[in-house]
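Researcher: I'd like a structural prediction for the single chain below. Treat it as a standalone chain; there are no partners to consider.
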Amino acid sequence: MESKRTSKIRRLLQSVILKLRWLVPGIGVKRWVLVILVGTTILGLGLTVFLLGAYRTVPEGWWIPFIKVIALQSITNRILRALIFGVVGVALIVVGIIGLNRALLRPFMRPGKDVIGTVAEYRRRDKGPRIVVIGGGTGLTSLLRGLKAYSRNITAIVTVADDGGSSGEIRKNVGILPPGDLRNCLAALSDDEELITQIFQYRFAESAGLGGHSLGNLLITALTEITGSFESAIAESARVLSVQGNVFPSTLKNINLVAEVELPERKVTINVKGESEISKMGGKVHHVWLDPANPTPFPPTLQAILNADLILVGPGSLYTSIIANLLVPDLVDAIKASRAYKFYVCNIATQKGETDGYSCEDHVRTIERHAGARLFDVVLANNRFDGSIPGGVEWVKVEKKDAHYQIYETDLVDKENPWRHSSTKVAKAIIDLYLERTGPLSSRDVNSTI
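Model: Treating it as a single chain, here is the predicted structure.
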């Protein structure tokens, strides 16, 4: 019997503690509870004035003993009476607010998620830093998945120079900008990466007669036709996927990436046009540029950069994803003018046909040379190299030479795919450094190497 009573008391205490979670900082509930309490108090004062007037003026009747019971006149201590009324009143208000919120939020709740946790998480992420991420490929999508746990104010900036695969076919046959990288970013920033996002990312087999296209690419293409503009199609796709943030192209112009490539076997340098063709050549890339050379930047992209608290460049293909974005006029100027904290997130492994033999310093110098400016406050690099990586690629390491950058080295690898970033590790490292502004940069961790 005693154990059952203890169990009941424990459950009661847990229920009370659970309800008190509404009062934890950051949820934004306490202020409205205070407003309700003030309004209820004023209403109660008005009702009290009325009841006092009635009690003093209305003739004796059966209702008088009833009023005395309600007023707790049997308790002579007025402070105790006021305390009882206050506790009961506040308890009823809190229970009513909780019940009302549950009723209103029930249609928007996910299975297994409680109301308080959902509201607290939403408020915390809503107050997160304004983050702009410039990159491409699996590295960018992995980073976005990690960052969305810390902020809802994320903007991904993606190049539209892609001319391979499904995106290239759509670009060539339909005449719209390549949707592939933007689609991947939308899926990564989706608030629910379950069934809807899986459908959006579903790729048809070649035998299906749809040329290996993904459903998301076809949807964006259809929405472009329906809405009349590519940017509106991206915005509508974001609404369908409940995207927490923005995905912007660096430009809305039809551009191609051109590279000057040295072919090692033939000992000649040629110009290669097309993002998909550059890495296929297997030579050394000396320089890249856009054709046409001066595309107009997408205005919301520049605005996002100027308003950012944190700007992240990388990870991603050095020439075809990162530099392809930075070549758009005014983008580098906007990064330089922004007061944001600026990171370069270095790739973990080299990319065959594009960055063979590159160190971390080579990546940064290449970006600086094309941008014509120093851009970063901190370089984030991996220092774990004990996994197995595919043939033809190498670890990207810090060479520890002369420096003018702070480099923070830490474990960033995904255990299952060591040549790729772990979304949780890299996001945590970035946010920790940002929150501390200079970060945990000790002489052991920081190497002035570039």
